[in-house]
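QA checklist item 7 of 12: single-chain prediction sanity check.
[x] sequence parsed
[x] length recorded as 193
[x] structure emitted
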Amino acid sequence: MSRIIIPGLIIGSLVHIAKFGAAIGTGDQAKTVSADWLPVPPTDEAPGPWLYMGKIRTSNPQIEPKTSEIEGTNKGGTYETEEMLLTTKRKFLFSSNYITPEFLQLSFGLREDWGTEQVVFDSGSPQIDVYVYTEWTDAYRDGAKIMSACMQGRLRLVNPAKAASDPALAEFELSVVHNQLCKLTPDADYSVV
């Protein structure tokens, strides 16, 4: 296995989401986004069910370890305590200056996207089950694509919508759920010199 060492800062990530329940195709060819079916990554020519989340200001993975203290005596009879890592909670945080329908849906507790129809306030969940697709680029190589990643999880809003004269910042948090379909893929054209 070869190693990639990135000489620069990672900048300019793109983020798209595919909501669970979104359908592609019709009739016998129809597919529905679910934990069992991951759509192909989006392209400009074929976005599929992927929704663009705007120009991303920041994006970072986050790990929250959960530990527990175990007490007892060792073989020599000495009392001791040990801290053990029980589980790790993984999150992916990203923020954008774009106010997407999902931002409004999560802000106001709407059951579905906010569009041209009237919708009922506070009738939906504070989270959306989604896949998140992201690409990372290298600042020192004119934005060369380093890798892409796809994650499954529950998308929540960190900050609700507010009316202000300053530009709004939509901050999202994805609680990552393990899924064998989701991968981190290095870009074949990216090489270290």
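[x] summary fact logged: The longest strand covers residues 56-73.
[ ] second reviewer sign-off
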